[in-house]
Write a structure and sequence with these properties.
Strand content: 15-25%
Number of strands: 19
CATH superfamily of the largest domain: Creatinase/methionine aminopeptidase superfamily
Bound molecules: zinc ion
């Protein structure tokens, strides 16, 4: 097995990311790590298929995949030695690990099923009684939470695409149209604009359904004057965007306008007040305190935001119970909401990047609550 990554100058994306990973696993006292979560596999190797394992040690980086993906892996992951897996784990996995000189092998505890863990342990145990199989969490996810410039470029493109689709959506949604119809018309806009599908199932939630933070589009007909929460995102080069707007066909009534204004005020306060170095929970409180002071504290039941990247929900988590500080290079959403059961709800969501200690807002979609239906 040749080492294709350790001695080369740091030229490629994969060598740079492998260097960071090797720093993290050395800190944890591991000789190597097994990566099975596909977003993490893609992040490290560039491989976009649906089945692969990475085994990374101080000196080597191996991508193991089955017959279907060997050619694709060689093309997409030139910094990795690609090997073809055999049907039985014991026929290839213990040999690989011992050839790589690994005694303490980390694995992703959040993504290895009980069944896979049993099979891996059994295969490793039968080959080498001294090998330790060590659970880890968040190793790659922490690396992913700080975006590199090329990742930020892709996220920005995905944000721009969603912003453009929202502009189209404002001309598409009309009273009498069902939520499902509206969601499908919006989805077509994404595909026509070149998005790789949609980042997640589009939410169009009208009237009382707008009180459900993660509603699915239904056959309910959208009516004038009621809130319509639209939550959607594009995917470009594997990277997601995430955008929520709440609109009212023909404009909201006074009560809903008041709720809208509180959410918007809270959202802007968070965007303007968030700083690098701030605890994520403190960032959450920038918006939450405004909503609570207005008397709606119990109606904002989710966190302020989440990181966005290869996954639509990733680190950092920005919520009332979040631990850890925010730092430059993090890209995350700011999406406070107020949900009134049986009546409706308002959520406004933008994506920001922390740069030079402050949030730079990537989203440009209009925050005007009224849509003219004329
Ligand atoms: Zn969203
Ligand atoms: Zn979101």
């Amino acid at each position: 097995m040749t080492d294709k990554s350790a001695d080369k100058p740091e030229k490629t994306r994969a060598t740079r990311r492998l260097r960071k990973l090797r720093g993290s696993i050395a800190e944890k006292g591991l000789d190597g790590i097994l990566i099975s979560h596909l977003d993490n596999v893609r992040y490290l190797s560039g491989f976009t298929g649906s089945a692969a394992w990475l085994v990374v040690s101080e000196k080597e980086a191996v991508l193991a995949t089955d017959f279907r993906y060997v050619e694709q892996a060689r093309a997409e992951s030139p910094d990795f030695s690609v090997i073809q897996t055999k049907r039985e784990l014991r026929d290839w996995f213990p040999g690989l690990v011992s050839e790589m000189g690994i005694r303490k092998l980390g694995f992703e505890a959040g993504f290895v099923t009980y069944d896979s863990h049993s099979k891996l342990s059994e295969a490793l145990g039968s080959a080498d009684k001294h090998l330790e199989f060590v659970p880890t969490t968040g190793v790659i996810e922490h690396l992913r939470s700080i975006k590199e410039p090329e990742e930020l470029t892709l996220i920005t493109k995905a944000v721009e695409l969603a912003d453009a689709v929202f502009q189209q959506a404002q001309t598409i949604i009309r009273p009498g149209m069902t939520e499902k119809q509206a969601a499908w018309e919006i989805e077509k806009c994404y595909r026509e604009a070149g998005s790789e599908g949609v980042a997640f199932e589009i939410i169009v939630a009208s009237g009382p359904n707008a009180a459900l933070p993660h509603a699915h589009p239904t056959e309910r007909k959208i009516d004038s004057g009621e809130p319509v929460v639209i939550d959607m995102g594009a995917r470009i080069g594997g990277y997601c965007s995430d955008l929520t707007r709440t609109v009212f066909l023909g404009g909201p009534d006074d009560a809903m306008q008041k709720v809208y204004d509180i959410v918007l005020k809270a959202q802007i306060a968070a965007i303007e007040g968030v700083r690098s170095g701030m605890e994520a929970a403190q960032a959450d409180d920038l918006a939450r305190s405004i909503i609570a002071q207005a008397g709606y504290g119990d109606n904002f039941g989710h966190g302020l935001g989440h990181g966005v990247g290869l996954a639509v929900h990733e680190l950092p988590t920005v919520g009332p119970g979040s631990t850890g500080a925010l730092s430059d290079g993090m890209v995350f959403t700011i999406e406070p909401g107020i949900y009134l059961p049986g009546q409706g709800g308002v959520r406004i969501e933008d994506i920001v990047v922390l740069e030079n200690d402050r949030a730079r807002i990537l989203t440009t979609a209009s925050k005007e609550s009224s849509i003219s239906t004329i």
